[in-house]
Amino acid sequence: MIIEAFGLTKQFGSLIAVDDLSFDVVEGSIFGILGPNGAGKTTTIRILASLISPSEGSAKVGGYDVKKESIKVREIVGILTENPSLYERLTAYENLDFFAEAYGLSRFEERRERIRQLLEFFDLWERRNDKVATYSKGMKQKLAIARALVHNPPILFLDEPTSALDPESAKGIRDLIQALSEHEKHTILLCTHRLEDAEKLCNMVMIMNKGRRSIVGSPEELQNRIAGEPTLQIALREINAKIIEALKNIEQVRRFSVDQKTAKLEIIVDDIESSTPEIVKGTVDAGGEILSVNSMKPSLEEAYLKLVKEKIE
Which of 154, 161, 152, 25 is nearest to 80 (CA)? Predict the structure, then answer.
């Protein structure tokens, strides 16, 4: 495991921001931390990045102890904070050059090549000499992620990377995160309020609430936990009595409902995978013209809301 946390606790006065938190992250994965405001997500990232020390517990990042080897940890992680500070009076190139030198890239040629690679990867090369104040929110966010990567760290902590972005810019950032994971092989810890980001990007997610770990699993595992009975939805050109009779005679169909207005069937089955071919064949043999067949699963957002509510109750 490239990240390991054991009983992390962080207390600010009487406030316990992180409470006995344990989890681990597989190298090369995208691990999401989800939770409402005040859940302790940002504090957890700050502890793991060795920006603050835990009150209790321990953690290792890339094999280094976050308390005893904080300098080593900072060398191997890049961090995007929720409100990234860029020097808006400087150009994009000047921003990256400043931070590259601060991270120890002392050779001019090395810095220049690394900056060129990043600005080309983030599609900002043509705007490299423009002051950051002229950039859109999406461009600033790209530059902030590039800054976090300037020293080529194997581990990247992203705190709300698509926050306050329009849908097109948010998708662009998601695509870049996916590319960083797949092609650059970075391990990414993603802190987000946007369930769409977690659902599309994360291999594993951890839901936090009031500083504690509520549940850990893949997005699919969390969805399956609240999925209930396996349900197949079939949209048809029209539904006739022959189709309904055919469904009644299929053994794996436990029950079904008919919506004549939308010409859709919702069919409760024993097992989606094994029953779908027989149901589709029976429907077609009965004269049905199928428009679509879908396995109905709750979204990650639905699973998240239900699971958080269960833990609170």
Answer: 161
